[in-house]
Amino acid sequence: MSNAPDRAAPVPAATRLDHVGIACRDLDASIEFYRSTYGFEVEHEEVNEEQGVREAMLRVNGADDGGATYLQLLEPTRPDSPVARFLERNGEGVHHIAFGTGDVAGLAAGVGGRGVRVLDAEPRRGTAGSRIVFLHPKDCGGVLTELVQSAH
Ligand code: V0V
Ligand code: CO
Question: 16-149 in CATH: which number?
Fold first, then answer.
């Protein structure tokens, strides 16, 4: 028998690190840095007007649930966007982390039930048709956290 405190794991759970989001001022230069320095290749690029970003997903490795782990490079498309505000305050750097799950709405409801502020009442459209929800960084130890359910 375990003596662990009675803190049941969330159901459904997060099953992998989906991506690390990095704020940059020049997406093409940032892509070139990660390609030439580490050999990471762009798997997907798109503009997400709702989130105010032009972004690229660079595949780092596969994951044991059949998904994968990426770097997400983020360039703002407008000055009033979250990434533009972040750059203004902090300069370039790590902006958020994203955990993958098979049930983003269920996981968000579970996390919200533990008192973490869920910033999106309904999952929004994320990269490549994924569904995403953000959690407030002040309730996550200073880390802006995204939950993501990939399209496939
Ligand atoms: C702000 N804060 C952060 C932060 N941004 N802390 C850690 N990491 C960050 N990225 C801190 C900030 O310094 C303040 O701390 C406090 O949170 C409250 O900030 P605020 O003044 O309310 O700042 P805002 O207005 O910039 O809002 C922050 C939030 C906003 C997190 C609420 O950025 C947001 O809604 N983000 C979610 C959407 C998003 O980030 N989209 C871009 C990625 P002090 O100074 O009070 O101590 S899109 C994406 O990832 C996609 C499409 C995808 O993966 O598919
Ligand atoms: Co993201």
Answer: 3.10.180.10
SS3 content of the chain, % helix, strand, coil (to 5): 25, 40, 40
What pLDDT digit, counting tens, does each position of 21-51 carry?
999 999 999 999 999 999 999 999 999 999 9
pTM, whole model, 2 decimals? 0.95
Ligand 1 atom closest to Cα of residue 48: 52
Among the bound ligands, name the one nearest to the CA of residue 133. 1
**95 catalytically annotated:** no
Q: Lowest mean pLDDT: which of 13-22, 61-70, 112-121?
A: 61-70
Contact between 143 and 60 (Cβ < 8 Å): no
Query: CA 23, 133, 136, 145 torsion: positive or negative?
Result: negative
Q: List the residue whose alpha carbon is closest to atom 49 of ligand 1.
A: 126
Å from CA of 149 to ligand 1 middle: 20
